[in-house]
Write a structure and sequence with these properties.
Elements lengths: L9 H19 L6 E5 L5 E6 L11 H12 L2 H6 L1 E6 L3 H9 L5 E5 L1 H11 L11 H4 L5 E2 L6 H11 L3
Parallel strand pairs: 3-4, 4-5
Antiparallel strand pairs: 1-2, 1-3
The structure holds zinc ion.
């Protein structure tokens, strides 16, 4: 079990619910159920996206899109003070991209450990990338999550993806 961080605010949960909504939209449009939102230091949403892998490019994760967008549009200070919200904890690729562009805190609804447990439970073969937590890839990034309030909803999206 991943320990509940305990630092999530009502505002965090509102942002995470938007991420889950984006994940739901992704699944409905044929992509995998992951959604993410980038918020600036004043609480304004700067950029949001969902998974877009159905075209065959498995690197089209929303967290990676956020890192690229931030590198192109934000100053180093703006990146450092921005908060990334995401329905599922960053994968190793996205954690690395996040750290390389100098983005700030990450808040996630469900952890990689939770997703890994669900996939194991359903007999889904593991992906090609080790399921590392953000902290193992980007130890300097502040992280909060998971949000137990959203676990069932996110689990249900992944169950639908895998036909469970
Ligand atoms: Zn990723």
């Amino acid at each position: 079990m991943t320990a509940y961080d305990g630092t999530l605010t009502d505002t965090d949960l509102t942002r995470l619910r938007r991420c889950v909504q984006l994940a739901t939209e992704a699944l409905a449009s044929g992509d995998e159920p992951f959604g993410s939102v980038l918020v600036d230091a004043d609480g304004n949403t700067l950029f949001e996206d969902h998974n877009r892998v159905q075209g065959g490019d498995a690197t089209q994760h929303p967290e990676f899109a956020i890192a690229r967008w931030a590198a192109e549009h934000l100053t180093p200070e703006q990146r450092r003070t921005a908060v990334t919200y995401t329905s599922g904890e960053h994968c190793a690729m996205c954690s690395a991209a996040h750290a390389w562009v100098g983005l700030g805190k990450i808040v996630y609804a469900t952890s990689t450990e939770q997703l890994t447990d669900w996939l194991n439970e359903w007999g889904v073969a593991p992906g090609p990338v080790a399921p590392l937590p953000i902290r193992a890839v980007a130890p300097g990034v502040e992280v909060a999550g998971p949000a137990p309030e959203l676990a069932d909803e996110v689990r249900a999206l992944h169950a639908r993806l895998h036909g469970v």
